[in-house]
Amino acid sequence: MTLTYRNPSLQVTKDHRIELIESPVNPPSENQVLIHVKATGICGSDIHFWKSGAIGDLKVLDNCVLGHEAAGEVVEIGECVTNVSVGDRVAIEPGVPCGNCFLCSQGDYNLCEDVQFIGVFPYHGSMQRYITHDSRYVYRLPDNMSYSQGALVEPISVAYHGIERANLKLGEGVLVAGAGPIGLVALLLAKASGSTPLCITDLSQERLEFAKGLVPE
Fold first, then answer.
1. N or C: which end of the chain has fewer CB within 10 A?
2. How many CA atoms lie within 13 A of 194 on its CB side?
3. What is the pLDDT of residue 209?
């Protein structure tokens, strides 16, 4: 069954065009939720898929809706969903792993080679009004967090993972290579971790000036 919601969507084509189309909305399966997307980010990967049609081995072989940094409101749930309810405000974790491989079984599901990652062909992403997603990979937002802030949970988690792997300690110096969005978040997280001194590099003087204004220290 196809639901009757209007679903304007932004897709990239295999010949590097961006199109605004009307996509079908499928009802959630027993373990899925249907989300009304309220905010979605534009990642550097979205630009690469548009301009170059590929990132390494990941290629756009046909039309694909972009986007993977998103938050929205749950409007329908599958019959087996128990962790969220209709009306909940949620952030989306974009990668749905297989759950069966060695990496998944040891907790490293982010490295799953069979991950279904929205916004990466052939899996349509969050630059559409409605998206269905596995309920295990959506997370309720606190009341004081906006949808725009919720859409930043995914990119912030990337930087946070790096901070954890670096095992930062109070008073240790940090060098962040690159003052793009992820680098800036890493800089903020390093500051929050008590790191000092803080240093960030980039080829763009404009980005460095922005970083200096963001974290004057």
1. N
2. 5
3. 96
pTM comes to 0.90
pLDDT score, position 3: 60
Domains of the chain plus CATH, in order, are: 8-152 (3.90.180.10), 168-216 (3.40.50.720)
Q: If we measure between CA atoms, which residue out of 66, 35, 63 comes closest to residue 130?
A: 35
Distance of CA 196 to the CA centre of its chain: 29
Q: How far apart are CA 96 and CA 109, in angstroms?
A: 9
pLDDT at position 179 is 96
**Token pair listed for 55:** 């990132």
pLDDT, averaged per 10 consecutive residues of the chain (217 residues), comes to 80 94 94 98 95 94 97 97 97 97 95 96 97 98 97 94 90 94 94 94 97 90
198-201 and 174-177 as β-strands: parallel, antiparallel, unpaired?
parallel
DSSP assignments along the chain, one per residue: --B----EEEEE-TTS-EEEEE--BPPP-TTEEEEEEEEE---HHHHHHHHTSEETTEE--S-EE----EEEEEEEE-TT--S--TT-EEEE--EE--S-SHHHHTT-GGG-TT-EETTSTTS--SSBSEEEEEGGGEEEPPTT--HHHHHTHHHHHHHHHHHHHHT--TT--EEEE--SHHHHHHHHHHHHTT--SEEEE-S-HHHHHHHHHHS--
